């Protein structure tokens, strides 16, 4: 996130692949003379947030993480948008007509305009989706468009853009033909890979997205990107020309970059930040007990999985028994009770328990069973021609975060004490970390995936091919076949059974070590209203209000 590359990015504790934090420097972005936050001033209602680092991308088709996604959701808008409960509602599309066979969608666009005054047209959607699918543009999330006829063939180099069944019938009518009925397609069109791009600007200026401060950076969402200062801040201003601007309460959104969770906590407690939590920044783990005790911590289930991915192309990690031993030996209950403290659910599978058909946990292994872990380790050592665990040297990588570091240190200690394996820890800044994962420069890497839409396939399809967000290098023909069959199955019960079987094939080979299923954790000032993350971990700033 790509939730990704990752993605999630934030451990609110819900860090996904992701996982950046919204934050700034210690001085904050407050408006008062005493340095305190000012939510009401000459510029109207203001909210002060933070993220951990610069968004890796400002282009909807190139974004793969929750940090970039949180910015995109404010600056752009798709055919649909998720409401505060996470349900899709019409956005750029004023009307959506679905054919009887549920494979053809016809969208009638409302009167809306880009921030430079150009009208938003059906051509802008056709252009954007085909741009994402163009293999030359290397969009990691291009596969999210494979539901459209001809999309996969074009993206894989076996077809052409003309074969992609998305067509601007006229300026206000967009026709889309799907390969199979897709009941969650309205949710997909709310995702940032499906956002439009101002085709006229992009054709004239292909690098329009590389300078967020430039005149070519054009959006169509409830906010305009007023300014971006790398490693410092992002400022969003209400888009007065947005079609639904009368229902947008906030005038200004100040987003500081604050890498340290403890620093962000101090800023929050000092009044310089109004909110801590998904999808922006993480709450300092050391503060969770305090927020629980005073009743201000908001906790809810989130459709996301925190995991470690194994690089199955690595000399050591290609061994299934070693992967199995490392997976079993993680003390998930101890980690949750003593480190993350966010009421997460221990994970023994890939798909979160929030997903229909996966509500009951499948124990593909018995977590913490050291007899099983040591048996797998012994088998793996023998296959590798080693006699003792001390001969193994394993590197555990994660993106810079106090929370990720605390989790990694806990796991490192457990692997040493229970398996006798020496583990080195390696952390790097978010963008650098994503690039290393993509390049396969890891043995074991932190990974988080927060659902882009509410369906189990969103988790399973990550690992269907070696491309995109699959940082394991693992593939399996049976797994691919099951997902392909499920994509064509119209009987929901039969489809669910296929997806369950696919997860079983996946987990039996241990390309990942699932650790826990996310929860949404957040705290906010009393004046902040309508800012509770939805089940996917999203917060739509469009609906947020400030009441003094």
What does this structure look like?
The protein has 548 residues and is of the alpha+beta class. Helix content is 26%, strand content 21%. The strands form 5 sheets. Strands 12, 13, 14, 15, 16, 17 and 18 form a 7-stranded mixed β-sheet that branches. A hairpin with a 5-residue loop joins strand 3 and strand 4 (88-90). The protein is globular, with a radius of gyration of 23 Å. Residues 1-42 have low confidence and may be disordered. Keywords: Signal. Residues 1-18 form the signal peptide.
Features:
single chain; 548 residues; alpha+beta; seven-stranded mixed β-sheet; five-stranded mixed β-sheet; 20 strands; globular; disordered N terminus; signal
- Category by helix and strand content: alpha+beta
Distance between the termini: 35 Å
Instruction: Please report which band the strand proportion falls in: under 5%, 5-15%, 15-25%, 25-35%, 35-45% or over 45%.
Output: 15-25%
- Rg (CA only): 23 Å
List low-confidence stretches: 1-42
Mean pLDDT: 90
Q: Indicate the percent of residues in helices.
A: 25-40%
Give the beta-strand count. Answer: 20
Query: Main β-sheet, in a few words?
Result: 7 strands, mixed
Number of helices: 15
Shape: globular
Pfam family, one: SBP_bac_5
Keywords: Signal
Signal peptide: 1-18
Region (Disordered): 27-50
């Amino acid at each position: 996130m790509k939730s990704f590359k990752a993605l999630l990015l934030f451990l609110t504790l819900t860090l996904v692949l992701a996982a950046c934090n919204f934050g700034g420097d210690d001085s904050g972005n407050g408006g008062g003379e005493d340095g305190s936050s000012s939510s009401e001033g000459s510029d109207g209602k203001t909210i002060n947030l933070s993220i951990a680092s610069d968004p890796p991308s400002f282009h909807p088709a190139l974004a793969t993480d929750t940090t970039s996604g949180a910015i995109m959701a404010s600056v752009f808008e798709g055919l649909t948008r998720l409401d505060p409960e996470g349900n899709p509602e019409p956005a750029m599309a004023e009307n959506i007509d679905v054919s009887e066979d549920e494979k053809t969608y016809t969208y009638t666009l409302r009167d809306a305009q880009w921030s430079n005054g150009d009208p938003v047209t059906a051509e802008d959607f056709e252009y954007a989706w085909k741009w994402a699918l163009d293999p030359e543009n290397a969009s990691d999330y291009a596969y999210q468009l494979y539901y459209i006829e001809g999309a996969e063939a074009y993206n894989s180099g076996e077809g052409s853009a003309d074969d992609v069944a998305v067509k601007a019938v006229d300026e206000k009518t967009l026709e889309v033909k799907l390969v199979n009925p897709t009941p969650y397609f309205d949710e997909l069109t709310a995702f940032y890979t499906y956002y439009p791009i101002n085709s006229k600007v992009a054709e004239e200026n292909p690098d329009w997205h590389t300078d967020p401060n430039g005149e070519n950076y054009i959006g169509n969402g409830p906010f305009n990107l007023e300014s971006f200062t790398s490693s410092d801040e992002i400022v969003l201003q209400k888009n007065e020309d947005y079609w639904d601007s009368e229902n947008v309460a906030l005038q200004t959104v100040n987003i500081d970059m604050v890498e340290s969770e403890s620093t962000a906590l101090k800023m929050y407690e000092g009044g310089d930040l109004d909110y801590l939590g998904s999808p922006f920044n993480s709450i300092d783990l050391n503060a969770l007990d305090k927020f629980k005790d005073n009743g201000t911590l908001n906790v809810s289930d989130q459709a996301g999985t925190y995991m470690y991915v194994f690089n199955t192309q690595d000399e050591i990690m290609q061994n299934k028994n070693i992967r199995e031993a490392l997976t079993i030996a993680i003390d998930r209950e101890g980690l949750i009770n003593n480190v993350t403290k966010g009421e997460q659910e221990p994970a023994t599978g890939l798909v979160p328990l929030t997903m229909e058909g996966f509500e009951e946990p499948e124990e593909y292994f018995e977590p913490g069973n050291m007899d099983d872990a040591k048996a797998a380790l012994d088998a793996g050592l023998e296959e590798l021609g080693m006699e003792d665990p001390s001969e193994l040297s394993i590197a555990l990588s994660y993106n810079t975060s106090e929370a990720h570091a605390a989790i990694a240190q806990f796991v490192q200690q457990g692997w040493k004490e229970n398996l006798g394996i020496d583990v080195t820890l390696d952390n790097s800044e978010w963008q650098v970390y994503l690039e290393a994962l993509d390049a396969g420069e890891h043995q074991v890497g932190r990974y988080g995936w927060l659902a882009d839409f509410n369906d189990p396939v969103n988790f399973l399809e990550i690992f269907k091919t070696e491309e995109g967000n699959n940082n394991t290098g693992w593939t399996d023909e049976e797994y691919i076949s099951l997902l392909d069959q499920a994509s064509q199955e119209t009987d929901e019960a039969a489809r669910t059974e296929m997806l369950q079987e696919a997860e079983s094939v996946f987990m039996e080979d241990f390309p990942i070590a699932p650790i826990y299923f996310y929860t949404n954790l957040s705290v906010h000032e009393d004046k902040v209203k309508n800012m509770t993350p939805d089940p996917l971990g999203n917060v739509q700033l469009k609906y947020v209000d400030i009441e003094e």
